[in-house]
């Protein structure tokens, strides 16, 4: 396809941009951190969403270079923001890793280098994996998860609830957090069954000492419901869409 052919040059020509969606403490309203979400500012087609090019980048192998660029950009940005945030309440950065990226042999070394270059304290880096990243419940994959944690980073399972054997992953991998998929958040108000499922997911995550972030919060009823269910953190259009770096920095500054 046309996009496939343009992707490598787009990276060289700096056409990608990282946006930052705030992750909010639902009780206090304070920004806990941001999820980094990449966009492609295409010279003819305008701003493209990752759904339009991440799958292509995965197929062609460019995801390796693009993924490293996103990680480097997001870590350097957060490191710079930490410079302007006084005190211990520093925001964290969540970065998505695709399956192919996770499978590449130099991932650990590459993240180590990025942390070193950006001078970001690894305790503020959360890596969001999908089930497809950790589909193989084998010793090699387990070791990689542990090594990333030994670097000081935290491992989150993204889109929780939309896969098909999630509980097996929780049992096998020492995960630090769960992101509850927005399809659950969106049904919370009107659907008692969804509430029951989310309630049990949250109590299970708490028992496993995992942090929980609800995705796709669009109204206060959902926030209220999540708070009642002891979900501490969330993100969604109610609070903010993914923001440009400049807008995210403004939000942080206002909060000081
Ligand atoms: O915000 P939104 O439309 O931008 O994101 C759509 C999807 O693309 C989400 O599922 C998100 O996890 C994924 N995504 C966004 N940025 C990245 C990225 O840098 N790397 C990977 N692998 N996926 C991303
Ligand atoms: O990693 P992941 O797929 O979960 O990335 C989040 C995606 O969800 C991005 O595409 C982002 O733009 C989108 N998003 C963020 N907040 C909301 C929301 O409140 N409602 C909806 N429908 N989508 C959201
Ligand atoms: Mn995500
Ligand atoms: Na998600």
Structure summary:
By secondary structure, the protein is an alpha/beta fold. It contains eleven helices and nine strands. Helix 6 (139-151) links the parallel strand 5 and strand 6 (154-160).
Topology of helices and strands:
Elements lengths: L1 H11 L3 E10 L5 E12 L3 E3 L1 H11 L2 H22 L7 E6 L1 H5 L3 H12 L6 E5 L9 H13 L2 E7 L5 H7 L4 E4 L1 H6 L4 H16 L3 E4 L5 H9 L4 E2 L10 H11 L1
Parallel strand pairs: 2-4, 4-5, 5-6, 6-7, 7-8, 8-9
Antiparallel strand pairs: 1-2, 1-9, 2-3
Bound molecules: guanosine-5'-monophosphate (2 copies), manganese (II) ion (MN) and sodium ion.
The site of one guanosine-5'-monophosphate (G) has 14 residues, from strand 6.
How far is it from the N-terminal to the C-terminal residue, by CA?
Answer: 46 Å
- Multimeric state: single chain
Mean pLDDT: 94
The main β sheet shows up as: 8 strands, mixed, barrel
Please, how many helices? 11
Class based on secondary structure composition and strand pairing: alpha/beta
Shape: globular
Query: H/E order of the elements?
Result: HEEEHHEHHEHEHEHHEHEH
Strand order in the sheet with the most strands: 1-2-4-5-6-7-8-9
Proportion in helices: 40-55%
Q: Indicate the low-confidence ranges by residue numbers.
A: none
Bound molecules: guanosine-5'-monophosphate, manganese (II) ion, sodium ion
Backbone CA Rg: 18 Å
Number of strands: 9
Which percent band covers the strand fraction? 15-25%
């Amino acid at each position: 396809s046309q996009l496939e052919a343009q992707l490598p040059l787009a990276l060289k020509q700096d056409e990608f941009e990282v946006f930052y969606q705030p992750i909010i403490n639902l009780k206090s309203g304070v920004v806990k951190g941001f999820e980094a979400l990449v966009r492609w500012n295409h010279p003819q087609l305008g701003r493209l969403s990752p759904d339009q090019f991440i799958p292509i980048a995965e197929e062609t192998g460019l995801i390796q270079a693009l993924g490293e660029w996103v990680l480097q950009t997001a870590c350097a940005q957060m490191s710079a923001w930490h410079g302007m945030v006084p005190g211990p309440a520093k925001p964290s950065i969540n970065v998505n890793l695709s399956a192919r990226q996770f499978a590449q042999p130099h991932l650990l070394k590459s993240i180590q280098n990025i942390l070193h270059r950006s001078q970001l304290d690894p305790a503020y880096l959360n890596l969001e994996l999908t089930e497809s990243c950790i589909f193989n419940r084998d010793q090699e994959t387990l070791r990689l998860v542990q090594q990333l944690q030994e670097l000081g980073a935290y491992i989150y399972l993204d889109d929780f609830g939309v896969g098909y054997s999630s509980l097996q992953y929780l049992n096998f991998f020492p995960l630090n957090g769960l992101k509850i998929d927005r399809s659950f958040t969106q049904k919370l108000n009107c659907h008692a069954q969804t509430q029951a499922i989310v309630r049990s997911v949250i109590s299970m995550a708490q028992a496993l000492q995992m942090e929980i972030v609800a995705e796709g919060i669009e109204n206060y009823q959902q926030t209220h419901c999540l708070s009642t269910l002891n979900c501490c953190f969330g993100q969604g259009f109610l609070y903010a869409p993914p923001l440009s770096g400049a807008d995210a920095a403004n939000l942080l500054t206002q909060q000081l």
